[in-house]
Amino acid sequence: MEYLQVKSTNPEILEGGENGGAVTAILLSLLENEDVDGILNMKKHDDVYDGMPSYITTPEELLETTGSLHCAPIMTADIIAKYLKDSKIALTTKPCDAMAIDEIIKRNGLNRDNIFMIGLNCGGTVSPLKAEKMIELYYDVDPKDVVSEEINKGKFIIELANGEEKDVKIDDLELEGYGRRENCQRCELKIPRKADIACGNWGSSKGYTFVEINTERGEEVIQNAIDKGYIEVKEPSEKQVAIRKKVENVMIKMAKKKQKAQLEKEYPSPDELQDILTRCIKCYRCRDVCPICNCKVCSLEKEYLQQSPEEKPDPLLMHGIRMGHMAFSCINCGQCEDVCPVEIPLAKIYQRVQLKYREETGYVPGVTSGKPPMYSPDKEEVAE
Amino acid sequence: MLTINHSICPECSMGCGLNLISKDGEIVGVNPYKNHPINEGKNCKNSIDNINTIKSAPKISEYDYNQKITESVELLKKYDSNDVTIITSGKTDNADLEKIVDFAQEKDYNIVAYENNFTKIDSELIPTYEDVEKSDLIISIGDVYRNNSLIARRIIHAQQNNAKTININVTDNLAGYNSDEFKKIESYDEIINVLEKIETTKDTIIVINDINSTENYEKIGEYVKEKGIKILTLYKHPNTFSVLNTIQCVQKEELMESINNSKLLLVINEELSEILDDECLENKDIIKLSSTDADAIPIRAWYEKDGSFTNSEGLTQEFEDAVQNEDNQIKTISEILTLVGQEI
Ligand SMILES: Cc1cc2nc3c(=O)[nH]c(=O)nc-3n(C[C@H](O)[C@H](O)[C@H](O)COP(=O)(O)OP(=O)(O)OC[C@H]3O[C@@H](n4cnc5c(N)ncnc54)[C@H](O)[C@@H]3O)c2cc1C
Ligand code: SF4
Ligand code: SF4
Ligand code: SF4
User: Fold this and answer.
1) Does A43 fall in a domain?
2) Whether residues A377 and A285 fall in one domain
3) Residue B159 Cα, ligand 3 centroid: separation in angstroms?
4) Domain count, chain A
């Protein structure tokens, strides 16, 4: 049972679900059968641009979280590592979430046995404010009128309150500087195979979620949900499996092309980079949100590395050190770049180093089993 | 139970959003509020330092107000109204500010605030944050990079659109390192001479967060009017804009004078020891309302109440109690003043 097409048996979940509602139905099964203390997933807060991580402990709350939010580039790995470490929880994981969790586990920050990873395939996320601007400009629609959005067949599609749909090709949007976040354009992991199951729409029949089962626990979860009547399943045809594989490969090829463009051709010169890094206010937000940066005592805040507010920032004292400590494990989730108040293109800088390291060592963070060759046991101490 | 809710940072007057993570009714961390129109999920060091301070501070959710209110009422009754001065700040939100002003008027008390030498500015001189991105010449005064990083971000966007940038400051600073020109001056008393020498364009914007006297700030205001340009002031408190528009804002010397002329001070949301020598408070009776001083009468903290404030661009922003701790019995300023007012 490597691949299955899954749909929820609950009409309410089917109605709200992105595809077959499999994810919600499986989460409901885990919650109602008390396999988990709670669920961490993403909920539409004010509107479709306002995805909020939400920790859920009741079925009623869970039913409010169906559907995919493509304008919610929020990571949940650090939330469980920091605040839910001792709970048994299920969480939805995009590939970057899954890679992050894998790297946190390697640093002893989480216990894999405590987490059920319900993976979501991912073609990319859009920054919410950029999405609103893009909808105004290229769809000629008031962003507030959008009730749902999806990414399908290379298009970003919006649905309006009156049921009307409008779409624009993602390639065209990206040519104009809109579309997916830049790190997502460069992201090569489209199916989270470290998650217990990986769910998506690629290759699926209408009304079903295509599920790839990755672990024994994933198999148990699916079997339990079938046995207890939460889901119905059918096997995909060989053709469907092949279509899914083909789309995945095309996406990976596109990501590699974007890496070449953004990390080589368009990459800032050393002088430009020096100027850009002079903006750093040392707020440490990049470190705080980075799922790889989890040390109990961070070297960056050591007294002898501090400069006075009057001195010109020395990039070596911040990014030089941080790079040596973690760039080999950078998963290109883009969280650092998203939160940097002074627009330093951090994910580009760190991913570029990781890819060079990968060339030398073959280490793919969040994917390769075992610790990276440069891993230091000093870094094993994870923040409380 | 873990909850995540929207809030607004109270560390300056920019109005940046942040998502607060609370566990069992206590703030434990932040998560980026990526669709907040002002900061897109980005926060500066001051904002995060503030959350870290809150995280490590002792928590109270219950307090017996009866005795403190009785004592306060007795003190207030003891003095003539003109011996009583209320001192507040832009840390107070709009509803509480209105309540404080009403309370002062009703009881005929003096009321003052010290807002780092800034005074009210004509609204037509104030640009929006988006205008900053569209400006072709930005003159920053003070270290707006380090202290108001989210306006620095708008300046960076303007630079990416080929705007020219000049920083004026009395010390070397991050804004200076990141501007096309840095003009270091001995004292802000020279500011107007330096400004006079700059050739402005019609879209020039001055972005300021530091000045040594009201007089110099007002001179800059005149200069802005004369040149037909705009000025954006980043204040140290979220609601300074409203404070400047509602109560008399004084300089340090005048504040000291007000204190000297009073016998009882009602200090609300202000830390006088950060502004003045403690000596000038000797022999004064003080009633203090604060969410951070353990010796004061406790009030609801910013993140734990609903409210609104007016940011640097003059936009009124609303925020909600982001912690939603039902067991929190701590009262708001308005609630406390109502109780006190009823007793006098
Ligand atoms: C950003 C994004 C991009 C995607 N891109 C692709 C793709 O290119 N190809 C593909 O095959 N599938 C993709 N998917 C997966 C697909 O959209 C469905 O989520 C999946 O098929 C499951 O459908 P369902 O009906 O079973 O889920 P539902 O039952 O509707 O449940 C969806 C679950 O996802 C959670 N969720 C929603 N948004 C997010 C988010 N941003 N981050 C984390 N969790 C979230 C919800 O809280 C909910 O628990 C993407 C999903 C997301 C979130
Ligand atoms: S980094 Fe990859 S997995 Fe994460 S949101 Fe972007 S495309 Fe999806
Ligand atoms: S460095 Fe940035 S992109 Fe890389 S893992 Fe950390 S947060 Fe993600
Ligand atoms: S988030 Fe940006 S400004 Fe803050 S420490 Fe990191 S690089 Fe520097």
Assistant:
1) yes
2) yes
3) 26
4) 3
Q: What is the DSSP string of A58-114?
A: SHHHHHTT-S--TT-----HHHHHHH-TTS-EEEEE-HHHHHHHHHHHHTTSS-GGG
Which tens digits make up the pLDDT trace of B43-96? 999 999 999 999 999 888 899 999 999 999 999 999 999 999 999 999 999 999
Mean pLDDT confidence for B288-314: 97
Same domain, A103 and A232: yes
What's the confidence (pLDDT) of residue B111? 98
Whether the CB of A330 sits within 6 Å of ligand 2: no
Average of per-residue pLDDT across A9-37:
98
Least distant ligand from the CA of A336: 3
A262 within some domain: no
Q: Is the dihedral of CA B53, B55, B61, B63 positive or negative?
A: negative
Q: Minimal Cα distance from A283: which residue of B? A: B45
Cβ-based contacts of A132 with chain B (< 8 Å): 35
B chain contacts of residue A50, beta-carbon cutoff 8 Å: 35
The answer to whether the CB atoms of B6 and A128 lie below 8 A apart is no
The minimum-distance atom of ligand 3 relative to the CA of A334 is: 3
What pLDDT was estimated at residue B140?
Answer: 98
pLDDT band at A150; cut points 50, 70, 90: confident
Q: Is the pLDDT of residue A13 over 60?
A: yes
Domains of chain B by range and CATH?
Answer: 1-116+236-344 (3.40.50), 124-234 (3.40.228.10)
**Which of A239-248, A316-325, B143-152, B263-272 is predicted with the least confidence, judged by mean pLDDT?**
A316-325
* Minimal Cβ distance to B35: which of A49, A278, A283: A49
pLDDT in tens, B13-48: 999 999 999 999 999 999 999 999 999 999 999 999
Note whether A56 and A201 are same-domain residues.
yes
Give how far Cα B91 sits from Cα of B235, B243, B282, B339, Å. 11, 9, 25, 21
Looking at the structure, do residues A147 and A207 belong to the same domain, yes or no? Answer: no
- Alpha-carbon distance A192 to nearest alpha carbon in chain B (angstroms): 23
- SS3 call for A29: helix
Q: How many CA atoms lie within 13 A of B204 on its CB side?
A: 18
B133-175: pLDDT as tens digits: 999 999 999 999 999 999 999 999 999 999 999 999 999 999 9
Which of A330, A351, A358 should be mutated for ligand 3, with most atoms under 8 A from CB?
A330
Shortest alpha-carbon distance between residue A373 and chain B (Å): 31
Residue span of the structural domain in which A147 resides: 126-179
Query: How distant is the Cα of B226 from the closest Cα of chain A, in angstroms?
Result: 32
Atom of ligand 3 nearest to the CA of A351: 4
Q: CATH code at A74? A: 3.40.640
State residue A384's pLDDT score: 41
Q: How far apart are CA A7 and CA A22, in angstroms?
A: 5
**CATH number, domain containing residue A130:** 3.10.450
At residue B64, what is the residue type? D
What is residue A301's predicted lDDT score, i.e. its pLDDT?
Answer: 86
Separation CA B253–CA B13 (nearest Å): 24
CA distance A94 to A99: 9
Q: Is the model's pLDDT at A383 over the cut of 60?
A: no
Which residues of chain A lie closer than 8 angstroms to B31, CB-CB? Answer: 53, 74, 79
B264-268 β-sheet, strand order: B110-113, B84-88, B264-268, B285-290, B297-298
Q: Which residues pair with A169 in a beta bridge?
A: A155
Domain final residue pick, A203, A223, A257:
A257
Which residues form the pocket of ligand 1, taking CB atoms under 6 Å from any ligand atom?
A 17-24, 41-42, 51, 65-70, 72, 92, 94, 120-123, 125, 151, 199-202, 209
Question: pLDDT (tens digit, 9 = 90+) per residue, B99-141?
Answer: 999 999 999 999 999 999 999 999 999 999 999 999 999 999 9
Same domain as A193, residue A175: no
